[in-house]
Structures
1.
Amino acid sequence: MAEQTKASVETGKIKAMLDRRKGKMKLLLSHCAHCSICAESCFLYTAHHGDPQYMPSYKAIFSLGRLYKKRGRVDRGFLEEIKGIVWRNCVLCRRCYCPIGIDIPSMIAFARSICRSQGVYPDFEEPEHRESWL
Amino acid sequence: MYDFVRGPLVWVAFAVFFGGLVFQALRFFSLTRKRDRVFLPAGMQRRGGESAGPSRNWLRSLRFTIIGTHPVMTVVTSVFHVCLFVTPIFLLAHSILFYESWGIGIWSFSESTTEVLTIVFLACGVFFLLRRILLRRVRAITTAYDYIILFVTVAPFLSGFFAYHQWFDYKTMVIAHILTGELMLVVIPFTKLGHMLFFFLYRFLIGSEYSFGQGSRTW
């Protein structure tokens, strides 16, 4: 775990992962109307008194959306930032409802896959490393 | 200038519009595949009467849909989209142009009706603009792109309204009206306005918990 926190990330691998699912994900990202109608369908959003960062569309846009915008050229700090968005702010319960029909859970799940591929994920095992929000 | 934007450029705009929609539809079908039918054991199949309850229950359940959580947004969105399609198709001036070009007569609203529809449409547009500016959660995910798209959508109606009333220079306003209309058509297949088509593809064809109907395809 100590090595993981310091090692740089493989941007080539991240880019390859992004390119593999580019068709679907870019389509979903482009059709998001940014209307925020999905907000109330998320129990974390309502539990946190309407904090926008718990909105399903916010989570997808600021995790996977930013990865595509940067074309995978990210560093570990960026992935750590995304980790909070896709794990702390989302439990992947799949209850998010998009009036247009965009598959939000698959976007967040994919962002998790990318973080995990670089060793960025919540540590459930070592007590001293455990995330404060677990 | 007027003859050019009214002539060849209209053809280009409609070609890009329809070609773009077809292209995107084909792209959707290439990205998805037919969904394997899931057959439930007899005991697990949903009973016919289970989903169709008395009307009282049906009405109460609306509370948990978007109609219940966002009643204003539901109404404004529905009115906006109806006006967006109905107004330009059944507008008298467009009907006359169509007759001059193709010899086909299309029924049209009276001009006062069209004017009311346009004003209602513009009011809905203002609502969406204010909502983007004022609501914290919409603001959090709004970018310049969202304002541009809203403007592209509203501009043909705004310039058409100005031209009809001959505010500002009439000729310039008519050309602006045609250009912004063509711009909107060109932009639809390649931006989030593509939900014009993809709403139906996503909600009807993709099989998921929130589908309308069974949904025969999957990602």
Note: DSSP finds twelve helices and two strands in chain B.
2.
Amino acid sequence: MNLPAGGHSSTFSQISHAATASFSEYLSRSAPDLLPGVRGSATGVSSNAEHLAPHATTIVAMTYAGGVIMAGDRRATMGNMIASRHIEKVFPADNYSVLGIAGTAGIALDVTRLFQVELEHYEKIEGTLLSLEGKANRLGAMIRGNLPMAMQGLAVIPLFAGFDTDRHLGRLFSYDVTGGRYEELEHHSVGSGSVFARGALKKLWKPNMDEDRAVSVAVESLYDAADDDSATGGPDVVRQLWPVVYAVNSAGAKRIPERVLAAAAEAVIASRAVAGREA
Amino acid sequence: MTQQFYVSPEQLMKDRADFARKGIARGRSVVVLSCSEGIALVAENPSPSLHKIGEIYDRIAFAAVGKYNEFESLRQAGVRYADVRGYSYDREDVTARGLASVYAQSLGAVFTADSKPFEVELAVAEVGLRQAEDHLYRLTFDGSIADEPDYVVMGGEIDAVNETLRSNWDAGQDFAGVIRAAAGALEGHLPDNGGASGQRRLGPEMLEVAVLDRDPMSSRGNRRAFRRLSNAEVTDILGD
């Protein structure tokens, strides 16, 4: 890794290297083999690649009074097997945004890591935070970069949520495999269990909920997703595993502590047990 | 055909060094100090947006004096080096030592090969979990590198600022203490200080101050130790 100074071409190389504040753009010029999806050759991947690599599944996100909340279950599957019970699918992207991933876990984790460095890199080079729209667009470009892999069955579908510090509200963005970016209102869900989570969200979500209520709505909608989708893991009381939940508001992104999630999950389980209904 | 005059390598290097030294000596000074709470970086800088102090990585910061465009390009190159290294290996594998040696190579290459040496002096600081683990590297225009204990002074009036700090700095001080000591040392030795009219006060708007917190994970829930202090915070510390 050379710094862009020194030698006879230094003026030229300095200007060309300094032209971007984007880490991924710099990487694609200086070390393209480190980019997710480009690593190794994708030519040998068969069309049923979902049996070759673990998949992460359901993510739910919703707005509440003053911010957004995002939650993900803990299961990764490989075909019909459970590959992991501990996987985390929701990550802080920077101080004011979070990212949830569904799809091929390995590539999604790489995209997440690249996206986190991308935002931090911009902040350090430019001395200012990227706007929320700017962050959402950068993520779209990264997903578009993975399109060749997605065509072979290794798709990554993120859900992006953040606090817009200019407009002072929480916003949600969903994506398709081509990197198309869609702003969502109120709530959204991605992954194989998302149809069931979406149904739950439609009934449970109310405008201007407080944070505690939003956490329990997120947990309950994941519970419904796990109930009907085999690739989504429910609350695991034996191993004491609860969903990963992040809340973002004007104070920044914070992870909801385990004890709050344990209480929310146990309340959902208790109310379902008391009702004694089949579905 | 014009005649090429012979210049001995010794003379050439000496001329370049003199040129670079003159450029640096015109600049206002920057001080980087290790203390009990972490590392404080204090610069005299009237501009609120053109920084002399910057974040490089989780526990690493950068400070410079000299020509802005030259050290800014080095700062950005350092951020790129650190981000690529941290992304391709692990965040732990980015160290001030590695960064400083890459800077030394670049500065050395420019000094010997380019038509003009860089008129800059840099400090690379890495905060450790204990004060004994703090690293302060000082790099000069010709690529020489020094590992300094305690504190680094760069810029115009090194000797005079060093003199004052030697009596005012103490390893057990907190951020407020060393920032006050640094501001005092910079104040007493401004290049345009006539001496007869006494010291000129350096207000918060004339100072750029940042710190590297020793344990940012537990104090702020963030692995990034770098924090720029606002004018209000600096005013509080200086107690005007």
Note: The interface with chain A takes residues 49, 51, 54-56, 73-74, 76-81, 83-88, 102-103, 105-110, 113-114, 118, 221-222, 224 of chain B (CB under 8 Å).
3.
Amino acid sequence: MDILVEYGDVLARGFLHTIELFLLAGVGSLVLGTVLATLRVSPVPALRAVGTGYVTLLRNTPLTLVFFFFVFAYPKLELLQFPFFTAAVIALTIYTSAFVCEVLRSGINTVPVGQAEAARSIGLGFAQSLTNVILPQAFRAVVPPMVSVLIALLKNTTVAAGFSVNEVGSVIPFLNEEGEPTTNAFIWIAVGFLILVIPLTLVQRSFEKRWSVAR
Amino acid sequence: MGAKGLRLGAVLAATLALALTGCGREGAPGGGEPQVQQNVAQNVQVPGSPTFDRIKQRGRVTIGVKEDQPGLGFRDPVTGQYSGFDIEIARLAAAQLGLDPNTQIDYKPIPSTAREQALATGEVDYYVGTYTINDKRKEQVGFAGPYFMAGQDVLVRKDNTDITGPETLKGKKVCSATGSTPIQRVKEQQLTEPQNIVEFQRYSECVQQLLDGQIDAVTTDDAILKGYAAQDPDKLKVVGKTFSQEPYGIGVAKDDIALRNKINDVLEQAAKSGEWKRVYDATLGKSGTGAEPPPVDRY
């Protein structure tokens, strides 16, 4: 308990940055992931190839390497420069969106072909049938795996500690240098993550119940 | 002759290149293998030390070290050999405990955050790796020593003339290891603005960013910085104004006072006999700066 009293502000600031990273990267990867999933099911072979290439590349690259690229290699290209926090959001977003894409694509596969055919027969184009008929059903089907991806994202934010972003992962070396037993720090950070993940799980439950598709 | 001569020329050129790079490495504290010969003590007794009993029974000693700090504790990624000042101190202690430092040591790289656990669980018998002695840590582990007195300093690019000490860091991008004492000091004393503070997991990443021009200075203990400066003397320099006292100790299990006393005896003996000096000159001393063994603190 001593740690909470003495270093409460450090922990709180760390978790605040963790939450910021999670929310920004979460929204970003849901959007980018949806775009990628659309590419992967589109009727144009070139677009499908782009989507497949992206997912193959990012899903097979460790997150740390993605971070490494943005912090150590990207600046050498001398393009637009951005602060470490932005770099962390970008790295997390492009990494997680590959997983979001695949989850969503599996959802699209659960929608019966008849739905797409029916949409086309009433005169909807590809974009219209996707956004009005297929994607809404796909999202409903993949609530549990999508939340799992988001929980993974939340935990992945700790990688940013190694790249000059002071989220909660950087609290452990800090407390260690202060001479606090690392085990205690780990326990409180684990408790903090529990507090963050449980609401996500509750959201998942409620969406599952409300959105379940009767087939 | 023609083809043969050419081939010979190529081999010579390659050998020369190897020799040249080899020379560069040898001069620098960092690469290579342990250099100081140690006499192994005979019939060593450390009554009442559970750690020593364990070492005796095993016939080997496990020493926790750093593997990524050139000049102090560094593991050559090619040969797997450890070298540096901390390694030599670890070898010295092992020899005085009656173990052959060339054949009976197992090195175990332990990162800073896991040191206390490694000592508490007996994963390592003792730890030598830029371990600053402080009162909070004494509640968790025992410290023999200090065997070296380091101080916080600043590493900059060779051509930099703006940064001459801690008071000239304002407006400069300053880097150190995540959550480390040096970067905490920079924050507390407001040596630079918060947005100019950069933290990476390893000092080598800071040094890389310094060489790339992304940051202006790396700050931590002078001993660590000297190791990097000696690796790349054409591009890097240590400013040379220390602004803290970091006594490096040998970490032992907290309740093993017998072993702590024994290692303290070894360090005092080494300081008196000139052994400490030999170890220093063969490693960190190559950076061109001198040092004296600090008095041992028996608490």
Note: The radius of gyration of chain A is 20 Å.
